[in-house]
Every structure is written in C-alpha cells, then in structure tokens.
Amino acid sequence: MTASQDTGSAVPPPPAWAQRPASLARAVTAELVERIVRGVHPPGTTLPTEPALCEAFSVSRTVVREAVKVLQEKGLVQVRQGAGTMITPPAMWNMLDELVLATTIAGDESLTILDDLVVTRRVLESDMANVAARLAGPDTVERLRALVDRMDELVDDHVTYADSDRAFHDTIMRASGNRIARGVVRSLESQVVNTARYLGRTERALCVASNLGHRRIYERIAARDPAGAAEAMFNHITEAWLVRRSGSADPLRLER
C-alpha cells in the first residue's frame, strides 16, 4: 500500500447520529460526502475498507455498499479492482448534485464556489434576458413591470422582496423558453437561497439599488433590446453579488 493510500485508511470517530435514522444509507452517504469534501479522506487516497466503515457507522455491509454506490454516482469515488475505493479529484465531482454543492459551499471560506455560482448564473441569465427581449409577449412584459413596481413597495421587507425578486428572474427565464438553462439556475439557487453567506446584507438601501437593476432589465426587455437586456442582467447580477459578498478574498473570478 502506498503512502497516499495510508492517508485515507484511518477511520474517524463515528458521527453524532447514533439513533439509526430512517435511511441509514442516506445518512452514511451524507457523512462520507462531508468527510470527502472537508478533506478527511483526500483525493488520491482510499476510502476506509468496507468492514471498517461497517464498524465505524454500526451498519451492515448492504448499507455501506449502497452508500458507496451513491458516492460513485456523485463522482466522489471510483471503485478500482484490487485497489479499493479511491477518492477522486474535485474536478470530477458532480457540482450540480444537491449534497455535494451544499457541502462544498459550507466549507468554502474563500467564497470561490459562490463566486463561480454567480458567474454561472450571470452567463445563463444574461443569455435568457437576450432571448426574452425578442420573445416575451405583452403579458410577460406587463408582469415584469408589475413585479418591479411591487418591489419598490417592498424595500423595507427584504423577505417578501426576495420572493418577488426570484419571481422576476424566473419570469424572464420562462420567457426565454430555455428549460435547461432555467433548470441549472434553479438547481444552483435552491442550494444557497436561504444561506447567510449568499444572501449577505439585506438592508433597505441594497434593496433599492437592486430594484434599479431590475427596472433597467425590464425597460430593455420592454424596448425589445436583446443586447441591452443581456448587458443589464449581467451588470445587475454582478453588482448585486458584490454588495452582498462578505469574504476577504478579492472576487477575481468575477472579472471579465
């Protein structure tokens, strides 16, 4: 066995949950995802053996095998004949997976993952705004106007404001007809929409500034200006994140 394999062979103490939850395999999977993402089992090392995991979690081989199968589906491990279950590099992880993304964000002190999430949103939503400016019908344009006007009234209530904010963006995504791009954005946002690290500051002045961005997007869509709508969306998403962002590292990944 190599030195790198030795690193991953140690089994940490069992997790706090010992009450045998309804789905043991799901609980074991969640614990192993957290350990892999946090680097307890680093890339290039082997996952502890099946008997070791059974003992550590007080579960059967069937439960462990199911958990390892799910880890494979998430791209976190590869089972190699004669070499054990190897931890894969982060580049191979499925970052659209709910558990992998949420766990990665929770441990990302540099905010790199959240910056990349915002960049991905920005690319996709800018393109959808471009298309919406060409395809949106009168009812959609009117809905966008009503949402922007409503948000002007909600700047003192950031929780309700956020609901209308999401509805505004979703209306544009629906108008574009791009179900794949909308699905990706919704999947990404579902993991962070209630996290303090993503929401950041929520005071009134920021809601006011945010809705000025919404109004510029609405006006460009209403004017049938695809390039202008895309630019307005790009700038809005970037600026809104920069004022919410609280990390000490420079947001270099947002620069274009």
Entry keywords:
single chain, 256 residues, Four Helix Bundle (Hemerythrin (Met), subunit A), 2 domains, two-stranded antiparallel ribbon, 3% strand
Tell me what you see in this structure:
- With 256 residues, the chain is mainly alpha-helical.
- The chain has twelve helices and two strands; from the N terminus they run H-H-H-H-E-E-H-H-H-H-H-H-H-H.
- The model is unreliable at 1-8 (pLDDT under 50).
Please specify the SSE layout and strand pairing.
Blueprint: H1 3-7, H2 24-38, H3 50-57, H4 61-73, E1 77-80, E2 84-87, H5 98-106, H6 112-135, H7 138-153, H8 158-176, H9 179-190, H10 196-199, H11 204-222, H12 226-244
Antiparallel strand pairs: 1-2
Short description:
The chain is mainly alpha-helical and 256 residues long. The protein has 12 helices and 2 strands, in the order H-H-H-H-E-E-H-H-H-H-H-H-H-H.
CA-CA gap between termini: 46 Å
Q: What topology, given as strand order, has the largest sheet?
A: 1-2
Helix and strand content put the structural class at: mainly alpha
Tell me how many strands there are. Answer: 2
Into how many domains do the coordinates divide?
2
**Overall helicity:** 55-70%
Low-pLDDT runs: 1-8
The largest sheet, given as strand count, sense and whether it forms a barrel, is: 2 strands, antiparallel
